[in-house]
Specification:
The protein has about 725 residues and is an alpha/beta fold. The chain contains 21 helices and 32 strands.
Length: about 725
């Protein structure tokens, strides 16, 4: 049983809280001044304190400061002060949570349970020798009390003894459980590879991690000024046309000179890919998968350097740049395993006298056209999917991230990928974009970028060219105008922080970014006030400084476009926040939040791809859903709500490719949240999911008549015998 101390000078509040908490089998202690609270803590084993701020003799702030000198007991402040500055002060001096008066008793109980669970389960509370813990289960062998997630459960003596035995020997229990599961496990579809696991995120609170990233930045700068050649049919190819790639925070810093491909180089790359196709098509899937697995190992070894290049070339902050490379590694590992799953021929039907087998073959040469905002992850995802399924690739990176694109060359060179299977051809879209898309030797086109360019590619690919042997398949992810709904019972702490990150992370340059937040009337004023304060707190500056949250846009042309949309937003809506405290040089734009936005406004319909957020008001949840679905895009969306009814309604009616409930709209993980939308957000199946590789192959079915001279052989899996 847990001991809870309630300290408040209002006796009615102490009495009410005592009644509510006693119903949960908590043992209650009461105090009416800060000094009384200190005296009780000195004499008794207290597990949580509810502390009023304004009290005589010693207030709650002073008492909390004194307690934190010797104790880490969870403290929830009770306060009639609702100003953020008061809450921030309380949290900064050591409180774990706060509750504003008047309060909802159900919310108090929920916050008490949460803090007790963290304190008792996650190591904050000193454990007695007789105290056993496993997950959310806790057992005090002295008192014979068992709790699950902080709630006491009743057990018979026999049940108690069995549970104690299991908790005292978790390793033995785990070993037996794993052995049992192994017996029931389905056949291994991942071949010689270990089970897929997402690349873990980085923790930059660890000094060694910060040092490694700084060294990565230094390594990138040490290589500045180099010339990056094309890579065609296994050979470096230099061209006379060079394009500098620069640091958007300092355009005078040239990271590299990148050779540019024209039509002649595209022809050479396509010829090499076409020649490589028969052998690569017939290479066993396991061997193709092993190349991807080796490539993942190379990227993992070089992750800091490659992430640092993103920070300098496209202005991506440390954590997000590291995550970008990690996602690219995930694609390599996931698609390697999924190819093995799909490579197994499937018996179709069980009709006597015939044998039917379904299997897949690669389509041919693939054109991969990659974006600059996830320059390694998305590029490697599309390229690895094409290659592992047996399709040689002609890869065109964005001109803004061509140096990052060259990372793929370095990786595939190191793993020894056969000549012609991967070809690196950066170049201006106006020179070679349409030529590549329309070429008769291209069998499929994999594109990520804007809606306008994606629709242009679909149109061009639809026209059959002389000598073309198959209908081209277009896989296109084309952006979004994503909405987040904040319900009137939402956890605003969570909603505000997640909206800020989803809207302004990487300067809003994500197709999944929150660009509209739709807030219900009842909490609108509170939410926008807190949203504005949060947006004002963000630091702006070069991404290489990890203290900065917002860096520059990727280049000056994007800066110009976003500045035009800022003018539109200011004309259509009412400015809530405009951050103009920007560095003097670099492709920076103001962070902008506007409210009073109507669904017909351009700022509510068109993708901006910058740190611009439109706030919309809804009278109820149904109207919020209607507003969320009022655009032609259907990529991502998010809902913050505590209502099971409204969450169920969102699951059914909020029709987007990726819907997040009580979570921000960005950050899909390979294998966990297959990513991609529909309507004008794209065509094709979802990346990082079980259907994605199917788009890169053609299915075949072979039927054999097995009746010979009246004799029908029986296969092992025949069920008609």
């Amino acid at each position: 049983m847990y001991n809870i101390l309630i300290c408040d000078d209002e006796k009615d509040i102490v009495s009410a809280l005592s009644i509510y908490l006693s119903t949960e089998n908590y043992n209650i202690f009461t105090a009416y001044t800060g000094q009384e609270a200190l005296d009780i803590v000195a004499k008794h084993d207290i597990h949580l304190i509810l502390m009023d701020i304004m009290m005589p003799q010693m207030d709650g702030i002073a008492a909390t400061v004194k307690l934190r000198e010797t104790s880490n007991i969870p403290i929830i402040l009770l306060t009639a002060k609702s100003e953020d500055s008061d809450k921030i002060l309380g949290l900064n001096i050591g409180a774990d949570d706060y509750i504003t008066k008047p309060f909802n008793p159900i919310e108090v109980l929920a916050r008490v349970r949460s803090q007790l669970r963290r304190y008792t389960s996650l190591g904050g509370m000193a454990k007695k020798a007789s105290h056993l813990t496993n997950g959310g289960i806790e057992m005090d062998d002295e008192s014979k009390i068992v709790t699950v997630d902080g709630e006491v459960v009743s057990l018979t003596p026999s049940e108690y003894n069995i549970l104690k035995l299991l908790m005292e020997n978790p390793a033995v229990t785990l070993e037996r459980e794993l052995a049992a599961r192994q017996e029931k496990a389905p056949p291994n579809e991942e071949g010689p590879f270990p089970p897929f696991r997402n690349e873990p995120p980085v923790d930059f609170t660890i000094p060694e991690k910060r040092k490694a990233y700084a060294q990565g930045i230094a390594a990138v700068r040490a290589a500045e000024g180099r010339t990056l050649p094309l890579y065609i049919d296994g050979k470096d190819v230099a061209t006379e046309t060079l394009l500098p790639t620069v640091n958007p925070a300092d355009p005078g810093e040239v990271l590299a000179q990148v050779c540019q491909a024209g039509r002649e180089e595209i022809d050479r790359a396509l010829a090499g890919a076409k020649a490589a196709f028969p052998a690569w098509r017939d290479t066993p899937p396991l061997e193709r998968a092993q190349y991807m697995h080796k490539a993942a190992a190379v990227a993992r070894r070089r992750i800091y350097e490659m992430a640092a290049l993103q920070t300098l070339e496209v202005g991506k902050p440390w954590e997000q740049a590291y995550g970008d490379v990690g996602e690219g590694i995930d694609f390599l590992e996931y698609y390697a395993r999924d190819m093995l799953r799909l490579s197994v021929p499937r018996r179709m039907g069980r009709a006597p006298g015939e044998h039917n087998v379904l299997f897949y073959q690669p389509k041919g040469v693939a054109a991969v056209i990659a974006p600059w905002n996830f320059p390694f992850a998305i590029a490697m995802g599309m390229v690895s999917a094409a290659i592992v399924t047996g399709n040689p690739v002609v890869f065109k990176p964005s001109s803004l991230s061509s140096a990052i694109g060259y990372n793929l060359v370095e990786i595939f060179k190191e793993v020894g990928l056969p000549a012609g299977v991967f070809n690196y051809c950066p170049g201006q879209s106006s020179v070679m974009g349409d030529y590549l898309v329309e070429h008769p030797d291209i069998s499929l086109i994999c594109f990520t970028g804007s809606m306008d360019v994606g629709l242009h590619i679909v149109e061009k690919a639809a026209k059959v060219q002389p000598g073309q042997r198959q209908v081209k398949r277009v896989i296109a992810e084309m952006g979004g105008k994503n909405a987040t709904i904040v319900d009137d019972d939402a956890d605003l702490d969570e909603a505000v922080s997640q909206v800020v990150y989803s809207a302004f992370g990487f300067q809003g340059q994500k197709c999944s970014a929150c660009s509209r937040v739709i807030v219900l009337d009842a909490i609108y004023d509170t939410f926008v006030q807190r949203l504005a304060l949060a947006a004002q707190s963000l630091r702006i500056g070069p991404a290489e400084n990890p203290e900065n949250f917002l860096g520059p846009l990727a280049d000056a042309s994007l800066q110009k476009n976003v500045l035009e949309y800022i003018k539109i937003a200011e004309a259509e809506g009412k400015t809530l926040v405009k951050r103009s405290d920007l560095p003097d040089k670099g492709a920076y734009v103001p962070l902008l939040i506007v409210e009073d936005v109507m669904p017909e406004h351009r700022i509510a319909q068109e993708e901006v791809f910058g740190p611009v957020l439109a706030v919309m008001r809804a009278k109820d949840f149904d109207e919020a859903l209607e507003l969320a679905l009022s655009t032609r895009f259907a990529l991502t969306g998010a809902v913050f709500s505590r209502s099971p009814e409204n969450l169920a309604k969102a699951r059914e009616k909020f029709r987007v490719g990726n819907l997040y409930l009580n979570k921000g709209s960005t950050g899909a993980m390979v294998g966990r949240q297959p990513f991609g939308g529909f309507n004008m957000s794209g065509v094709g199946s979802k990346t990082g999911g079980p259907d994605y590789l199917l788009q890169f192959m053609d299915p075949r079915c072979v039927t054999e008549n097995t009746i010979r001279r009246g004799f029908t052989p029986i296969a092992e899996d025949d069920d008609w015998v």
